[in-house]
């Protein structure tokens, strides 16, 4: 059974940083596409960044230059380093994975497995 467990969310002031983690269990971690998504109250879930099974990364324009996705294959863990946080980054952040290693978009509908989410709140 595939399980994704996020951690690292919290409250931070604008301009600050957070690092989210996603521990993955129960599937071929190294060859799957994985990604980070977020959903703010009253808004649809949106893609933040994905990394395909062949290592290519695709960032949403809103986070380019501020967020960085990385993987620790030895620990089966996906990370999201978030710098220069803005008020509009406030959302529930979700980790997702899918067996399709060739994914190129940040569309949530492309991803099959989801974590429970971790809240990120940015204040002024």
Main attributes of the structure:
seven-stranded mixed β-sheet; mainly beta; four-stranded antiparallel β-sheet; 0% helix; 124 residues; single chain; globular
Topology:
Blueprint: E1 3-7, E2 10-13, E3 18-25, E4 33-39, E5 46-51, E6 57-59, E7 67-72, E8 77-82, E9 91-98, E10 113-114, E11 118-123
Parallel strand pairs: 2-11
Antiparallel strand pairs: 1-3, 3-8, 4-5, 4-9, 5-6, 7-8, 9-10, 9-11
Q: Give the CA-based shape.
A: globular
Low-confidence stretches: none
Q: How many beta strands in the DSSP annotation?
A: 11
Structural class: mainly beta
Distance between the termini: 41 Å
- Main sheet? 7 strands, mixed
Strand content: over 45%
**Helical stretch count?**
0
The percentage helix is under 10%
Mean pLDDT rating: 94
Element order, helices and strands? EEEEEEEEEEE
CA gyration radius, whole angstroms? 13 Å
Question: How would you describe this protein?
Answer:
With 124 residues, the protein is mainly β. Helix content is 0%, strand content 49%. The protein has strands spanning 3-7, 10-13, 18-25, 33-39, 46-51, 57-59, 67-72, 77-82, 91-98, 113-114, 118-123. Strands 2, 4, 5, 6, 9, 10 and 11 form a 7-stranded mixed sheet that branches. A hairpin with a 6-residue loop joins strand 4 and strand 5.
């Amino acid at each position: 059974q595939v399980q994704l467990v996020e951690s690292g969310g919290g409250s931070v002031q604008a301009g600050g940083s957070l690092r989210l983690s996603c521990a993955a269990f129960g599937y071929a971690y190294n060859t799957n596409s994985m990604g980070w998504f977020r959903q703010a109250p009253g808004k649809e879930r949106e893609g933040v960044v994905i990394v395909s099974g062949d290592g290519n990364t695709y960032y949403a324009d809103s986070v380019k230059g501020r967020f960085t996705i990385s993987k620790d294959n030895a620990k089966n863990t996906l990370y999201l380093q978030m710098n220069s946080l803005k008020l509009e980054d406030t959302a529930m952040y979700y980790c997702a994975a899918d067996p399709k290693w060739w994914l190129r978009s940040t569309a949530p509908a492309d991803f099959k497995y989801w974590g429970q989410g971790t809240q990120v709140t940015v204040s002024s």
